[in-house]
């Protein structure tokens, strides 16, 4: 599973946009060093609570 976020970096005083991009959040199994196909339920629940 992955989550995409569109982001902008702007100046604080003039609101001039310096750069835009997409940030991708992915779950990685640190023991295996691989991207996980399914997000662990505890992580999913925590992300849902943030949104």
Roughly what is the average pLDDT, rounded to an integer?
A: 85
Low-confidence stretches: none
> Globular, elongated, flat, extended or rod-shaped: what is the shape?
elongated
User: If helices are DSSP runs of H or I spanning 4 or more residues, what is the number of helices?
Assistant: 1
- Report the strand count: 4
Strand order of the largest sheet: 1-2
Radius of gyration from the alpha-carbon trace, in angstroms = 15 Å
Gap between N and C termini: 16 Å
Specify the helix fraction band. 10-25%
The major β-sheet equals: 2 strands, antiparallel
Strand content: over 45%
What order do the helices and strands follow? EEEEH
Which class of secondary structure composition applies to the elements? alpha+beta
Q: What does this protein look like?
A:
The protein is an alpha+beta fold and 51 residues long. It is built from one helix and four strands, in the order E-E-E-E-H. A hairpin with a 6-residue loop joins strand 1 (2-10) and strand 2. The model has no long low-confidence stretch (mean pLDDT 85).
Identify the notable features of this structure and list them briefly:
51 residues; alpha+beta; two-stranded antiparallel sheet; 20% helix
Write the layout of secondary structure elements.
Elements: E1 2-10, E2 17-26, E3 28-29, E4 34-35, H1 41-50
Antiparallel strand pairs: 1-2, 3-4
């Amino acid at each position: 599973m992955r989550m995409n976020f569109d982001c902008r970096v702007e100046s604080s005083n003039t609101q001039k946009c310096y750069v835009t991009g997409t940030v991708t959040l992915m779950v990685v199994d640190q023991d295996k060093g691989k991207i996980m196909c399914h997000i662990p339920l505890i992580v999913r629940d925590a992300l849902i609570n943030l949104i």
